[in-house]
Design a protein that fits this description.
By secondary structure, the protein is of the alpha/beta class. Helix content is about 45%, strand content about 20%. It has one domain (about 5-180, about 210-235): NAD(P)-binding Rossmann-like Domain (Rossmann fold, 3-Layer(aba) Sandwich), CATH 3.40.50.720. The strands form two sheets. It has a seven-stranded parallel beta sheet, with helices on both faces. Helix 3 (about 55-65) packs parallel to helix 4 (about 100-125). The longest helix is centred in the middle third of the chain and has 29 residues, at about 100-125.
Length: about 240
């Protein structure tokens, strides 16, 4: 049984990705900074590591726990710290995106992906290959109001994906990204009916995505059925972005 590492696994989406990978026959290692990941792992019969993936020593802990047979890495960990670049009201500046919030998102969403992949890739090379799946977003393709930091990281993840696909393909390592659109979460459940309807009206399929919609896309790209796919970005947005 091969090991699949899923980061950001304390949340609903990461946990669901792990669940679907386990059903496909993978031994799971679920990772998050939030200790709640231990409960998520226990419910799925998986192993868990609480680690800060923005620090090399945290990533080293994950790799050591995974052992030698890492077949799949899902870089799912990410955060948001939304704000306008400059907020202007009544002819004067009323706010801005702070350097602290910019750096926090870059550190988790970009540096964390870099550190995890750099650490896991040698294990995959030594083992004869592997699959790396990076969580991007449709906002990495077209930008989004109030998300300078988040959109920048998700665009960068796409280009790291394409670069690593070129560099690692000779070692039988496939690298792909998934770009979800609006996914139903606890946050969207708290929205008003009007706000939710407005969001759904922008989607060609007229519904929000589910965690399973994203999880199945990840499982497909990690499978043998996708053995000739690398360096691609799978848009899972229901037609929000085409």
């Amino acid at each position: 049984m091969s090991t699949a590492i899923v980061t950001g696994a304390a949340g609903g989406l990461g946990g669901r990705i792990g669940e679907r990978l386990a059903a496909a026959g993978h031994d799971l290692l679920l990772v998050d900074l939030d200790p709640a990941v231990e409960g998520v792992a226990a419910a799925r019969g998986a192993r868990a590591v609480v680690a800060d993936l923005t620090r090399p020593e945290g990533v080293d802990t994950v790799v050591a726990a995974a052992g030698e047979g890492v077949a799949v890495l899902v870089n799912n960990a990410g955060i948001t710290r939304d704000a306008q670049l400059v907020k202007w009201r009544d002819s004067q500046q009323a706010g801005e995106m702070s350097e602290r919030d910019f750096d926090a998102v870059i550190s988790v969403n970009l540096k964390g992906v870099f550190l995890c992949t750099r650490a896991v890739a040698p294990r995959m090379i030594a083992g004869g290959g592997g699959r790396i799946l990076n969580a991007s977003s449709v906002v990495g393709l077209y930008g989004n109001f109030g998300q300078t930091n988040y959109a920048a990281t998700k665009a960068a993840v796409i280009n790291m994906t394409k670069t690593w696909a070129r560099e690692l393909g000779r070692y039988n390592i496939r690298v792909n990204a998934v770009a979800p659109g609006f996914i139903a979460t606890a946050m969207t459940e708290a929205m008003t009916d009007e706000a939710r309807a407005g969001m759904e009206s922008r989607i060609a399929l007229r519904r929000l995505g589910t965690p399973d919609d994203v999880a199945y896309a990840v499982v497909f790209l990690a499978s043998q059925e996708a053995s000739y796919i690398t360096g691609t970005v799978l848009n899972v947005s229901g037609g929000l972005y085409t």
